[in-house]
């Protein structure tokens, strides 16, 4: 695989690390409506979307799961695999047919432990995604559940 054909989401990684990570990937596909993972389940893999969409959702007691964000082309799906206890913080379901690169979490974590520099690069990449997702989650939950005027000062 050449650098020009790699997912753009990996561009923050050094070229050698991009290729090394992609060496662990396999191409997968899922039909629309497939549950990729459930909140609270074991996070043993992650994906980079090639085509299609995945809705990230959050269980809300007494209500239907709230869709927090919808991910599409070239986005990372899943970060819970990186941090103990390796449990999904959200659920994920395909909202269209999905083609993706799938990565084995344990193998990637092992590579991170064996090579501290590679591990730092992966942690910075995943950490950046976590920061964006937390912001999106906060914004979406405020949209869904905050009373009108909740953004005003006291």
UniProtKB/TrEMBL annotation:
<protein>
    <submittedName>
        <fullName>Regulator</fullName>
    </submittedName>
</protein>
<dbReference type="InterPro" id="IPR014710">
    <property type="entry name" value="RmlC-like_jellyroll"/>
</dbReference>
<dbReference type="Pfam" id="PF00027">
    <property type="entry name" value="cNMP_binding"/>
</dbReference>
<dbReference type="InterPro" id="IPR018490">
    <property type="entry name" value="cNMP-bd_dom_sf"/>
</dbReference>
<dbReference type="InterPro" id="IPR000595">
    <property type="entry name" value="cNMP-bd_dom"/>
</dbReference>
<feature type="domain" description="Cyclic nucleotide-binding">
    <location>
        <begin position="9"/>
        <end position="78"/>
    </location>
</feature>
């Amino acid at each position: 695989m050449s650098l020009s054909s790699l997912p753009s989401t990996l561009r923050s990684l050094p070229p050698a690390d991009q290729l090394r990570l992609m060496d662990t990937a396999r191409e997968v596909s899922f039909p629309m409506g497939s549950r990729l993972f459930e909140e609270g389940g074991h996070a043993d893999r992650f994906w980079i979307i090639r085509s299609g969409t995945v809705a990230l959702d959050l269980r809300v007691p007494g209500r239907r799961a709230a869709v927090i964000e919808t991910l599409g082309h070239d986005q990372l799906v899943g970060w819970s695999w990186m941090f103990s206890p390796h449990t999904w913080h959200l659920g994920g379901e395909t909202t269209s047919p999905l083609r993706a690169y799938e990565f084995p979490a344990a193998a990637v974590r092992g590579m991170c432990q064996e090579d501290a520099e590679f591990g730092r690069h992966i942690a910075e990449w995943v950490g950046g995604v976590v920061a964006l997702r937390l912001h999106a989650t906060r914004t979406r939950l405020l949209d869904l559940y905050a009373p009108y005027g909740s953004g005003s000062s006291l």
